[in-house]
Amino acid sequence: MQDLSSFNSFGLHVHAQNLVRICSEADLKNCPSDHALILGRGSDILLTDDYEGTVLVNCISSLDIRHEGDRWIVRSGGGMELDSLIETLIARNIPGLENLSAIPGTVGAAPIQNVGAYGAEVGEHIVKIEYFDLDRRCFGSLSHDECEFGYRTSFFKKHPELRYFVTAVTFSLAEKFVSRLTYKGLAGEALDTPYKVREKVIALRRSKLPDPAQIGNAGSFFKNPEVSEDKAADLRRSWPDMPVYPQSDGTVKLAAGWLIDKAGCRGITHGRAGTWENQALVIVNRGGARPHEIVALAKYVQMEVMNTFGISLEPEVRIYGKTGEISWDQI
Q1: 222-314 has which fold?
Q2: How far apart, in whole angstroms, are the C-alpha atoms of residue 110 and residue 152?
Q3: Catalytic residues, which ones?
Q4: For residues 151 and 225, what is the distance between their CA atoms, to the nearest angstrom?
Q5: Where are the domains of the chain?
Q6: Closest Cα to residue 129, out of 142, 139, 116?
Q7: Global pTM value
Q8: The CATH number, out of the four listed (3.40.50.2300, 3.30.465.10, 3.30.1330.50, 3.40.640.10), of the domain defined by the range 63-204
Q9: Which among 167, 158, 51, 161 has a CA at the least distance from the CA of 109?
Q10: Which of 23, 24, 50 lies closest to 37 in space, CA to CA?
C-alpha cells in the first residue's frame, strides 16, 4: 500500500494499492489502467477512503514557448506546477495568467475545474488540451470549444466516466499586457505590469488563505452559488451588506465565504477539521484529521447555510472513494 498524504493537499493519510509516476508520454503506453486514479498534486480533491487501485501521478513537466504574430503560444506539460509556469512566463514578460498566481496544483489539473481567481479563469486562455485515453489506450486532443469551460467546470468534469490523462495544455496569450483589476483588493491599485499584479495577488492569497504546505486544505471547498435576481433581491432585504455579483446570463453570484461566515461557521472545529479563521470558505486539516471529519464538517456548514439563507452550497472539490469519483450526495 502506498501512502497518499503527500499527494493530496489536505494531507490525509489514505492509501492506494500502487502508485506510478508518469514522467513522459511514453510512460503511459505501458502503465496499468484498470481502476487507475489520475492525480497531479491533489489540490482540488477529497479522498474519503483508501483507493482500491493504482494512482497515476502526472509528472510531465515539458515546456515550449513560441511567438506567433502578436501572441505567445505556450505548451506546458500537464505535470508542471501552474504557479511555476506563471512565474516562468512573468520572468519572460509574457502576460495573461498573472491573476491566477499562487493557485496550488498542476497545469493538467487546472482545466478540469477551470480554476479561477481574482477575475480570471484558466480556460479563457487555453486553445488545446492533449490527453491519453486510459481506456482506449490512445492519444487525443480537445480544442477550446470542445473543452466546454464554465464556472468551475469543463468537459472533463461533466464526463467523469472518461479517463483522460492530460499530457499537455497549450495557451494562447496576448503579447500586450491588459490589466484585470475589477476584483476587490486589486481595484484602484497602480498595477501596471504583470509582475506587480502577480505580487499583489500572491500577497492577497497569503493574507486570506492557508499554505497547504503548512496547513492541509484544498482551497475553496464550496463553489460560489448563483441565484436568480429575485432571490438575490429578497436576500438583500434581510442582509443589505450581502455582496452580489450580477452575471451576463441574468443570474447573480453570491460569495460562499460570506454566507458561511454569516451562518456562524467561520473558525469552527469538528474533531481535527475546521473552517479557516481568515476565510470561512476554506476547510482545513488542523492536524491528523480523518476524511470523515472533513466530510462531517462540510455537511454541517452546508446545512447551516441552507437553514440561514435557503441556499444549497455545492462542493468545488472533487470527491473520491474506494473505486473512483463519487458525488457529494453519495457520502
Answers
A1: 3.90.78
A2: 10
A3: 152, 220, 316
A4: 10
A5: 2-58, 63-204, 222-314
A6: 142
A7: 0.89
A8: 3.30.465.10
A9: 167
A10: 50
DSSP state of 98: G
Instruction: Look at strands 45-47 and 318-320 and give their pairing.
Output: parallel
Look up the CATH number of domain 2-58.
3.30.43.10
Distances, alpha carbon 105 to alpha carbons 51, 59, 81, in Å:
20, 12, 6
Strand order in the sheet with 126-133: 63-68, 71-77, 164-174, 126-133, 138-143
> CA angle, 244 as apex, 243 and 249 as ends, to 5°?
165
Identify the bridge partners of residue 169 per DSSP, sorted by sequence position: 76, 129
Please answer whether residues 263 and 307 qualify as being in contact, where contact means their C-beta atoms are separated by less than 8 angstroms.
Answer: yes
If DSSP codes are grouped into helix, strand and coil, which group holds residue 229?
helix
pLDDT tens-digit profile, the chain (331 residues): 899 999 999 999 999 999 999 999 999 988 887 778 999 989 999 999 999 999 999 999 999 999 999 999 999 999 999 999 999 999 999 999 999 999 999 999 999 999 999 989 999 999 999 999 999 999 999 999 999 999 999 999 999 889 999 999 999 999 999 999 988 889 888 999 999 999 999 999 999 899 998 999 999 999 999 999 999 999 999 999 999 999 989 999 999 999 999 999 999 999 999 999 999 999 999 999 999 999 999 999 999 999 999 999 999 999 999 998 999 998 8
Asked if 47 contacts 8 with a C-beta cutoff of 8 angstroms, the reply is yes
